[in-house]
Write a structure and sequence with these properties.
Chain A has six helices and ten strands; from the N terminus they run E-E-E-H-E-E-H-E-H-H-H-E-H-E-E-E. Chain A starts with a strand and ends with a strand. The mean pLDDT of chain A is about 90. In chain A, about 45% of the residues are buried. Chain A has a six-stranded mixed beta sheet with strand order 6-7-8-3-9-10, sandwiched between helices. A four-stranded antiparallel beta sheet of chain A has the order 2-1-4-5, with helices on one face. Chain A has about 220 residues and is α/β, with parallel strands linked by helices. Chain A is globular. The longest helix of chain A is centred in the C-terminal third of the chain and has 14 residues. Chain B is of the alpha+beta class and about 375 residues long. Chain B has two domains: about 170 residues, no CATH class; about 190 residues, no CATH class. Chain B contains 13 helices and nine strands. In chain B, the strands form two sheets. A five-stranded antiparallel beta sheet of chain B has the order 3-2-8-1-9, with helices on both faces. The longest helix of chain B has about 45 residues. Classes of the chains: A alpha/beta (about 220), B alpha+beta (about 375). At the A-B interface, helix 2 of A face helix 1, helix 9 and helix 13 of B.
């Protein structure tokens, strides 16, 4: 699904002290499966994920997604990809504070309407979010519940790839493993890319990529 | 259903914030409209006297020079006065023969006062003999609706609007602060041109005028006098449709327009600053939300579209509620303040409503500045997390 060649990312390009977040490596990712990217803070794992998801443009190198060179497409095409083919779970859940759990999920839906509503309800049930929570705003939900809403939001368009950046960072162990279980299930026929520094949540991962100082170490 | 960022979600879930913004807009609308209604009643009320009255009655006060008379040509004042009276009588006869003039006579006048919300206007009220009253009333299309016709010296008939305006009752002394116990109201008349009249009761120091009973085809008394060889000088006064209208524009219309415009600009400036500050803070609070939309694939155009739709809903609600409040307030002002004072006002002033709505559109235009600045600040979540 992804073919990465010699990817480089340099921050602060216009200053004397440049930061090499990604130092030029190749990487190939499959169409499905749970892939973990692990490494300490500053190892470049989040930068790699953001480059793959078009949120960042690499300084150099090539990223081919299903035959499309992502470094050559314009913003509109990138937005379309993020909208229809990618799903995002951010470190902080980034739910819109004034929206209910259901509205937060549906805000990402490409096709809104009763079908999207039904789909969101099904996701909420699968994720163990009780019906009484659906119309609550994020401030009234626990961290785990918020993250489940964020996962449902990421899945609402049946994306081909889910990018999850530290999806369990704000959760206790039980909730963290539940979230990983859901992502593992989703990865049966799609690609789920999980960036974390917590190796324990990746025990069911199909592949683990270890990063160190902007390079793949293993 | 095509995917679009809904503007209603914010409105529905932030009723308090929306209510504050909508209320501010609606109250500003109402304030601007209510002030206009109160001020414009002065223009509307005075218009009846200064625009409608000259369609029926005109006045002229002419000195000897207007008739071509020079004091040096006469040995005594009596001779000069006799010549003046003769010329004046000839002029009055000529005026009576002029098409569109039903009658003309020389008589004393007193002043009638009409008090509006802003300012007062004094206008001519002819005095005449009792037998002249009915023909005069017939000419101006007035009818007696209360009391009786004047019979004795000092009896006056007052227009019903002036009765209300001055708080008079039949039997009261008219303009007592000016004329003392000289003119007593014996009847109330009703007409379109707000004419009042009375029977003389001694000399009142307001002067003597030629009163011309004209119709709408002969409202240019200045021109008619010039046709009759009258040379108008600085000391001569002619109150006809043209001079009344000029005075109406200068003393009333332009002044009120200026006050209305000034107040309008002040209120709108404060409103613009208020809305601008509120909107900047409103946008700052939501910047992460916009970043999220951008990250999950919504383009800036779609986010901008949502902002515009939200703004349109806020301004639309503000305008609709403001309009309803304005019309309600205008109705109450008319019932409680304007009509009881005998002033003329309306509930709906379409032109002013359009002006306020136009200003709202202008304000929405001004708000594009913070919106576009905010739009440029939108990043994706990765940039926030870096």
């Amino acid at each position: 699904m992804f073919e990465v060649k010699n990817i480089c990312m340099i921050y602060d390009m216009n200053t004397d002290v440049k930061t090499h977040a990604l130092k030029g490596f190749d990487l190939s990712l499959p169409d499905k499966g749970l892939v973990g990217i692990i490494g300490p803070s500053g190892s470049g794992k989040s930068t790699l994920m953001y480059c793959l998801s078009t949120l960042k443009a690499p300084t150099d190198g090539s990223i081919v997604y299903n035959g499309t060179e992502l470094t050559n497409i314009d913003n509109v095409q990138k937005e379309r990809l993020r909208r229809k083919e990618f799903g995002f779970i951010f470190q902080k859940h980034y739910l819109v504070p004034y929206m209910t759990a259901m509205e937060n999920c549906l805000v990402a839906a490409v096709q809104k309407g009763p079908e999207a509503q039904k789909k969101a309800e099904a996701f909420f049930r699968d994720l163990g979010l009780a019906e009484k929570e659906w119309n609550k705003k994020p401030a009234k939900l626990s961290g785990g519940q918020c993250q489940r809403v964020a996962i449902a939001r990421a899945m609402i368009n049946d994306p081909k790839v889910i990018f999850a950046d530290e999806p369990t960072a704000s959760l206790d162990h039980e909730n963290a493993f539940n979230v990983m279980k859901i992502l593992k299930k989703y990865s049966d026929d799609r690609l789920v890319l999980v960036v974390t520094h917590d190796r324990s949540i990746l025990k069911d991962a199909d592949r683990i990529i270890e990063m160190w100082d902007g390079e793949i170490s293993r | 259903m095509k995917s679009k960022l809904s503007a209603w979600t914010y409105v529905k879930n932030n009723k308090r914030t929306v209510a504050v913004l909508v209320t501010a807009l609606a109250l500003s609308f109402m304030a601007m409209y209510a002030v206009y209604v109160l001020l414009i009643t002065t223009t509307e009320s005075f218009e009846t006297v200064m625009v409608e009255m000259p369609k029926k009655v005109s006045y002229a006060s002419l000195g000897g020079r207007a008739y071509g008379l020079k004091g040096d040509d006469y040995a005594t004042y009596e001779e000069l006065k006799a010549a003046y009276n003769k010329k004046q009588a000839e002029l009055i006869e000529n005026l009576k023969k002029h098409p569109g003039i039903e009658d003309a006579f020389y008589t004393q006048i007193i002043d009638s006062t009409y008090q509006a919300v802003m300012g007062a206007y004094s206008f001519e009220m002819p005095l005449m003999e009792p037998e002249q009253v009915q023909p005069f009333l017939d000419h101006v299309g007035a009818k007696l609706i209360r009391g009786s016709m004047p019979k004795d010296a000092g009896d006056v008939l007052v227009d019903e609007v002036i009765m209300k305006n001055g708080g008079y009752e039949v039997g009261d002394w008219f303009q007592k602060s000016w004329y003392g116990e000289t003119f007593r109201i014996v009847g109330v008349i009703q007409s379109k041109c707000m004419v009042s009249l009375g029977v003389p009761n001694g000399y009142t120091n307001n002067g003597f005028y030629i009163v011309v009973c004209n119709d709408e085809t002969a409202t240019d008394l200045t021109g008619i006098l010039q046709e009759n060889g009258i040379v108008l000088g600085d000391g001569d006064k002619v109150w006809d449709a043209k001079t009344y209208y000029a005075a109406y524009r200068a003393d009333v219309g332009d002044t009120i327009d200026m006050v209305v415009t000034t107040l309008f600009v002040i209120v709108m400036t404060f409103l613009a600053i208020l809305v601008l500050v509120a909107y900047v803070s409103f946008m700052r609070n939501r910047i992460k939300e916009y970043c999220l939309y951008s990250s999950i694939g919504y383009g800036r155009g779609e986010i901008y579209g949502m902002m515009l739709r939200e703004m349109s809903i806020l301004f639309g609600l503000g305008a609709v509620i403001g309009l309803l409040l304005s019309l309600g307030t205008a109705y109450l002002l008319n019932v409680m303040v304007i009509e009881p004072k005998g002033l003329i006002g309306h509930v709906i002033y379409g032109g002013h409503i359009q002006r306020i709505l136009g200003t709202y559109v202008f304000l929405m235009g001004v708000l594009q500045i913070p919106v576009l600045i905010g739009l440029n600040r939108i990043k994706t979540i990765d940039a926030i997390e870096d």
